[in-house]
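FIELD: query
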Amino acid sequence: MLIYGGGAVGLGIASCLLHSGNDVDILARPQTVAALETEGLIRTGIFGCVHTKPGVFRCYQSLDETCNRLYDFILICTKSFDSPCAARDLAEHSHCIDHATIVLFQNGWGNAEVFAACFDKRRIYNARVITGFHRHRANEVEITVHADGIHIGSLFGESAGAVERLCHAISAGGIPCEKTDAIEKDLWSKMLYNCALNPLGAILGVPYGELAEHAPTRDLMDRIVGEVFAVMTASGYSTHWQNACDFLRVFYDRLVPDTAEHKSSMLQDITAGKRTEIDALNGAVIRLAGDHAVAVPYNRAVHSLIKFLEGPSAD
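FIELD: result
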């Protein structure tokens, strides 16, 4: 298996696959590769501590270094804005993807379409992840919160049986994971969750739970969710709830409490002076709203505020 992207999510999933005895390669930035090759991969947090020593897995800075290795699964763990570059990179290294199943462990909506432009869409699967990862050092990741198991399935009507072995390997390594034939519903459930929590948490500098404790921020999240639900419906997509009110009951009763202490990756990116994934979240909602003449003023507002916080370098 190849983990394409050595950030917090990539290292967290890699730790599971290594812990369950799989053959794993990690493609990452030079600093991450150096740390992994020197100290190994360390995982801490709510699913226990795992330390995989150097030499048990391979690390690369470029696909040119993989020496024609063939992969059964390629797990894309980059930020959503890196999807076009990742897809092109893999397309230029056909030896890596000769028969591999590509699984997108990414936030937001629209990543599958990017990869489908380069590869047979029958090989492309999406993962829905509602688990919090925080990378403390280049080779160390902490699992901070967990709201539900990882779900993996196809947006293009393919059988989820192709990812059953991968799901079993991740589960055996510590994080619950299962295949699904309803990944579209799962991904839109996460869009509703992320579009409400991530930008407001980043703008205000607070964890998820604090947003739900105050009437003004609850009102803002209610309105964002209502807009996202309207856009999803107008675009012909669906989720596990019939309306926004049904989702919001589960959101406030279970999803937010289960992840109350988590500070979003968007807040972590803003704090670190990095580009965020706002364009694949609220930005994707805005684009779809334009296609269907749906008004989304609250999503536009938080999108603009995050763009301001990112600064001109992210434009």
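FIELD: remark
The chain has a mean pLDDT of 95.
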